[in-house]
Amino acid sequence: MSALSRHRAFLLGLMGTATLAAGPALAADPIKVGVLEDQSGDFAAATLGKVHAIQLATEEINKAGGIAGRPIELVLYDTQSDNTRYQEFMRRVLQRDKVDVVFAGFSSASREAYRPIVNQLDGLAFYNNQYEGGVCDANMVVTGAVPEQQFSTLIPWMMETYGKNVYTIAADYNFGQISAEWVRNIVKEKGGNMVGEEFIPLGVSQFSQTIQNIQRAKPDFVVTLLVGAAQASYYEQAASANMRLPMASSVNVGQGYEHKRFTPPSLANMHVTTNYIEEVDTPASKNFLAKFKAKFPDEPYVNQEAANSYIALNLYKQMVERAGGSTKRNDLRKVLAQGDVCFDGPSGKVCLDPKSQHMSHTIYLAKVTDKHAIEFPKVWEDIKPYWLGEAGCDLTKKDPSAQYTPSNPPPKS
Amino acid sequence: MDVLGAVAASLFQFGDTFAFLVLSASGLAIIFGMMGVINLAHGEFIMCGAYVTVLASRAGLPLPAAILAGALAAGLAGMVVERLVVRHLYSRPLDTIVATWGISLIASQGTLILMGSTMQGVGTPLGSLEVGGYHYSGYRLVLIAVALALLLALYLFFNRTRFGVLARATIQVPHMAEALGVDTRRVYSLTFGLGAALAGLTGGLYAPTMTMVPTMGATFIVEAFVTVVVGGADVFLGTAPAAAVLGVVKAGLTAGYGQLFGQIGLLVAVIGFIRMLPKGISGFILRERA
Predict the structure, then answer these.
(1) Which of A108, A126, A281, B45 has the most neighbouring CB atoms within 10 Å?
(2) What's the rounded Cα separation, in Å, for the pair A23 and A74?
């Protein structure tokens, strides 16, 4: 039965364009929001919730009268976890569907695939995903958490709690490589020791050799920056080889809800810094979760990307309304430049930073217990996305449309 | 680090890779290697076996029985696919590629729609054991043993049983077999079903160690095809040595230079093999023997 109703929810999702625009009678032209997310393929488990969150926010906003009196119309495409689909559909939503704004992307590879197209066609895209940081691009607004929010909190805490010998395993593409660089820098800065670092190609599902390498290096904890369903097989295999080392990550639990999907205790002792997960025990979070489950009763989990997508649409609404109903990018960025575009949402109060167009977050340290329940040993409030601004990215003055890393910072002019 | 521990570690890594290659390839060795059907839905038969195994195990069946149920379900699915689609395309190998690719897309998308994007697994049984300072998963040692047993069983099946001989005869010279009274349609159907069942068995065996997603079959498919291509047409004489050679290459490079080089090495080795032995290892062995 649950399979059937999920089936129905999925179909409804595909038909969302038509159904969601209905609502109270609104005479004005709709505001079109393009949604390019992976509804199938390797990443779908983590990203279906983003689509649902956008549909939930759309329904709420439309019921309350829309954005500046105009209803939201969603233009949904399934990008199938495939970078070329992102490019194809990004052109389509900007050129043929002529959407006002696009919400797009899960993997960093997909974001870097579509970003040049957004630049070329001068669109506005929200990237509602945690990532490796560093995108300094006036066409992009990023609501996901970045390394200075996730690693500058997590890694020092782990080193104080468990010890200074660190082993990183990371997915072998821009996200994993740059995140691993952040971890390496922080470990070094805090006087720790990288006893190993390994990059795993996407799609790899067999980890015997990696597990053996880690056993040989004897770290105090393992940083796991694995991405996608295939790589997630690591945890089960490590547990069955009796690894039992503390683990730290910026992507697990908060994104792929592995603690719900895997049999305990394969994910026990995992530590994740996330800006939202459904276990967050605040009234705002519980309210959001209840609304989500009322609309999508079969949703397996409400993750941080779902919360960020929901927040993003509400921030967009605020920006358009403060710009007097204009959806032009420059008008919206003038509002953003005032530095007080904030929203009190499921994860607490968040604000957009004008220099980098990234978002501040409350960061929760989620620890997975032996029975796969979640504890929060620590919460950091109002962590700003400070790195880009400090490194010299200032979108209010200049738009380099580039991605920077700690080893490749913005040029000093 | 003592020598014994290091040797045990290398042996385990080789055995683990060998088992993965053998089990990935066993079903395909029959369907592609022997029957010549380029079956791009091989990964989906594996996925089918894995899903049925997990569902059966959660319904209360003990894991070995659940794995057999998975194999059986995949075998039945294979026979249905053979009857409806593949049977009409035996003389059109290129069309089979398109047809089985279509089946593969329908199966993985259908599973996504019906079962959702992910499913909770069953957890790896049997705990771990320690040799020379390393912990090993007991279940993965079982996988190695099963791979060896399966190779032996396939050899005996195709060389010592009546059906095995009929199957080889049917596939080599179908009209002659038919003239001698063999029901070739039934033989084709059962042989294809056996290949699909072996794929399902692989899925069931690996289900406790992997994430359950509709696309999980894709992680087997490259290894399956390269092993069969390197091995050639004979199920036993091809798959076993091909998996052994590729296992050494892959495990060795992975241990020395990491997963990326393990994969690159595997593919480079395959290119080398099909350049030098176009009929695969079994073609080479059988020609020498003749």
Answers:
(1) B45
(2) 13
Mark yes or no for CB contact A242/B127 under 8 Å. Answer: yes
Q: Is residue B262 part of a domain?
A: no
Residue B254 within a domain: no
Rounded distance between C-alpha atoms, residue A259 and residue B15, angstroms: 30
Instruction: Give the C-alpha distances (Å, rounded to integers) separating B273 from B246, B252, B288.
Output: 10, 18, 17
Instruction: Determine, yes or no, domain membership for B248.
Output: no
**DSSP helix/strand/coil, A104:** strand
Domain count, chain B: 1
Q: Are B128 and B142 in contact (CB under 8 A)?
A: no
pLDDT digits (tens, 9 = 90+) for B135-160: 787 888 888 999 999 989 988 988 88
Q: pLDDT tens digit string along A366-397? A: 999 989 999 999 999 888 988 888 888 999 88
- Answer yes or no: are the C-beta atoms of A275 and A379 closer than 8 Å: no
| Token pair in block for residue A342 | 């904030």
Q: Which of residues 40-69 of B touch A (CB under 8 A)?
A: none
The CATH class that applies to domain A2-146+280-362+383-403 reads: alpha beta
Stretch (H or E) spanning B77: helix B63-84
A261 touches chain B (CB under 8 A): yes
Pairwise CB contact (< 8 Å): B109 & A266: no
Q: How many residues are listed for chain A in this entry?
A: 413
CA A183 centroid distance within chain: 18
Tell me whether residue B56 is in a domain: yes
What ipTM was reported for this prediction?
0.74
